UniProtKB/TrEMBL annotation:
Chain ranges of the Orn/DAP/Arg decarboxylase 2 N-terminal domain: 29-271
Quaternary structure and interacting proteins, as annotated: Homodimer.
Coiled-coil ranges (or none): none
GO annotation, biological process: lysine biosynthetic process via diaminopimelate
InterPro entries per UniProt: Ala_racemase/Decarboxylase_C, DAP_deCOOHase_LysA, De-COase2_C, De-COase2_CS, De-COase2_N, Orn/DAP/Arg_de-COase, PLP-binding_barrel
Native source organism of the sequence: Neisseria zoodegmatis
Amino acids binding substrate: 268, 304, 308, 335, 362
Record: residues binding pyridoxal 5'-phosphate: 231, 265-268, 362
Superkingdom per UniProt: Bacteria
Protein known as: Diaminopimelate decarboxylase
Pfam families (alphabetical): Orn_Arg_deC_N (PF02784), Orn_DAP_Arg_deC (PF00278)
Keywords linked to the UniProt accession: Amino-acid biosynthesis, Decarboxylase, Lyase, Lysine biosynthesis, Pyridoxal phosphate
Amino acid sequence: MTLHCENIPLARLADEFGTPLYVYSQSALTEAFQAYTDAFSALQPLICYAVKANGNLSILKHFASLGSGFDIVSGGELARVLAAGGDAGKTIFSGVGKSEAEIEFALNAGVLCFNVESLPELDRIQAVAERLGKTAPISLRINPDVDAKTHPYISTGLKSNKFGIAYADALEAYRHAARLGRLKIVGIDCHIGSQLTDLSPLVEACERTLLLVDKLAAEGITLEHIDLGGGVGIVYDNEDVPDLKAYAQAVAKLMAGRPLKLMLEPGRSLVGNAGTLLTRVEFVKQGEEKNFVIVDAAMNDLMRPALYEAYHRIEVVEPGNTAPFTADIVGPICETGDFLGQNRTLACTAGDLLAIRSAGAYGSSMASNYNTRNRAAEVLVNGAEAKLIRRRETIEQQLANEQACL
Ligand SMILES: *Cc1c(COP(=O)(O)O)cnc(C)c1O
């Protein structure tokens, strides 16, 4: 009855490592990765795990050992990939605002490709490459203008978004890139949003992107790869999510006859369901209109509910004999938005442990020190073995860069 991660009771992990604690299942990470390689086996894609979903070095190292490449959005993430033993030659550099220093770092490291999002960025990469005497492999991120039908904050493929180059401007942007002598045009990419629950926008984006591939070929610009980004949704509650096999079949059908290498950039769907945030109940507070279960995890540990009103399943780790009641599960932070779940019916009491599910993606990677809270520890479980993969932060570490000058 008591909840486990693989073969280890969650309660034992809480005793050993304290709470709040992120717990990840290594076999769940492996299975999620293999679901992609199995589904897409006919196309032999390069899967580039999106580091921003969860950049813990052990998680990166695990994916690297499975053959994964990486999708990064900052120089910091490139440093993580390299520190984890990842291959720069399998790393794609995405993002709308790459600095000169980041471009230089990536060029020197030898990244597979820059996913470029604007003309000024093309010019900047050209200039840095010129200065270093290098050639920069580039792909253009095209905005296919399809509605991903997801939360507006995580929808990226519409005309109104800051991401990518407008579909109508794509050919001209490629012509511009082709005139820049230090750039080598290798691909095209798109990424239309995150937590997509519908397959059709993903397929439509692929179709529209391939149309551009053909138009470019007709102009003598031959691409080596197409990168369809990430975005496949996961089950947090009871959503339908895209079937990877159906996705792969649709893509294979569209790509048939084109000698293009396929790349994918999944983040959430590789780590989201592999992670749980363990937290302990501090108090149960009966309010006038609402009850509150106040726990030791908060929005600084898991920002998604506060940021997008995201839903995470919450379960009692060791169910006892308490009667169930309905409450908001909230943290100690001084913000009304500091909730982890609202209107949940749970049977718990002070001192009990709660498991906040599907917290592996955009959980620890979005954590902050708000309210001067130390960021949580992280543990990776493999069978009956648990490894501490991130120590709990200390107050000394938080204060280390500050000075009381006056
Ligand atoms: C965030 C992001 C991803 C990963 O998205 P998921 O929804 O986590 O799969 C992939 N590519 C780019 C460019 C991104 O910004």
